[in-house]
User: Fold this.
Amino acid sequence: MYETLRFDETDGIATVTLSRAGGNRISMRMVRELTAVCDHLEDTSDARVVVFRGDGGAFSDGIDFSDFHPDRPLDIHGFNKWEKLCTRLERLPKATVALVDGPARGGGFQIALVCDLRVATSAAVFQLPEVHLGFLPGMGTFRFAKYVGLGHAKRIAMTCEAISGSRAVELGFIDRLDDDLESGLAWALGALGPNHTVAIELTRRLLNESFATSYENAIGHFLAAQHRAISQTAFLDTLREQRKK
Amino acid sequence: MFETRPRILAVGTSNPPDRYVQSEIPDLFTVDVPAIRALFGSSHILTRHLYLPPPNADGLPEETQGELLAKHLRGALEIAPIAVERCLADTGLTVQDIDYLACITTTGFMAPGLTAHLMKHMGFREDCSRVDIVGMGCNAGLNALNPVAAWAAANPGRNALMVCVEICSAAYVFDQTLRTAIVNSLFGDGCAVALVRSAVSDERAFAPRVLGFNSQIIPPAIGAMRFDWDDQANKFSFFLDRDIPYVVGQYAERPVKRLLAEHGLKRRDIRHWLVHSGGKKVIDAIKYNVGITEHDVRHTSSVLRDFGNLSSASFLFSYQRLLDEGVVRRGDYGVMMTMGPGSTIETALLRW
Assistant:
């Protein structure tokens, strides 16, 4: 059913494996298929965690230029579709994990950034090559500086510097280095798995909004979100557990 | 079979001529309590249109209940005709073409109702049918749209006019307490009018069809928002419970889910959200419980900022701003959402 990726759902873990010969480049077809995956994850899936990874020793080498033709008029709509997809991935009602081996360039880099946790191998390479190619690194620019600060973000985006997995851990945008991605995944599932989905979703939203919101607005957002969290059965269960002790 | 649905064909709004800067209102009257002055300093409301009396010898606005009721009728008959004319301006219609008139007001208790006054004042036809929806509160615009749309569906080709007119300044009690100050610093005066019709000849019009409604009443919170008699002040007085935003938030997702499910839609299918400008905390509660963004409530927030809470008229002010923005496309879905005393949440589904 999918041509550009494989989708599996086992024991509450959904796995999206980007799978295209030549580095899992992101084509418009892949954008459409990832959008369909989002439909499923939002509407029908019972999975608690979604894992993103790549086939063939790569995460994703970035945009596939074969959808663009220099002799035909270019427009911005494909980029808009892509950014909408990234925002949907970022807001999925599940915890999300990126497992990165090999290159994560451009859009591939951004898929990793929209996830809640990121695990990389020492063979991972993170790069925003767009400026060198004459276009812009997408809303990855907007997200990346929040992870590493403006200084690192400017240098990495404007010089197209390639960042290794271990350096990415030092810079703070990769959470764990593990050459065995299965053990890295086990760590991520152990860390996120027991946590409550609604609490994860709301905490993630408040954190994503934190750099762009005044304290006066943020406190209102927090109180509204916190009230939603404490109205869930999960929190009432916690209170009952605490009483037993 | 091709089914004709009622559409919102036009909208118009109006406000009283006097516009007040929120932060300056405490200085117009003797307001010394710091907590009350602070209420007027928040940035969520910057201006409101109001009918305020000049201060009396003690520097206070002094109006009896009788004067307040008279002010309500006078104000309503000043601003409603302007909104009606703005609504009809581009339709080629006059009030003589209106077959059904609904007037919605939260605080205007009177008999005959506002419809009778407005019809006399503006010269409606003598056979125009009418209904007054009084005392329902901020949610009432959708409580009214429901029967107005049903009337339009049952009377194809005929024109229904819905007039939400709120003179909230005719419901103010000044007693230097926080309870009344919260009300006095929140509600503004305004009128919004919508023309609703169900006609085959409108099928190509760029106007949204009203596809359906869903309601949520919250009986345990029946006392959270009240407009009842205050023996001490000898006036009707609003009471707003501090937990309203959280009560509304907790239930907000339910009617939206039902409304969308009934039409086989997902939240992501909704391009436009027209949420009542109840107050900053209420808007936050809707955002985080329904899962919509700052962008989705941009008009809700800007209407609150510029006009305060206009009770039943607020959501149509947001609707007007959405139309003015020019981003709506044919086929787009929109959800209207209002909340108020009951406690209640009302929703409606639109499609352009």
The two ends of chain B are 20 Å apart (CA to CA). The interface with chain A takes residues 43, 245-246, 249-250, 266, 268, 280-281, 284-285, 287-289 of chain B (CB under 8 Å).
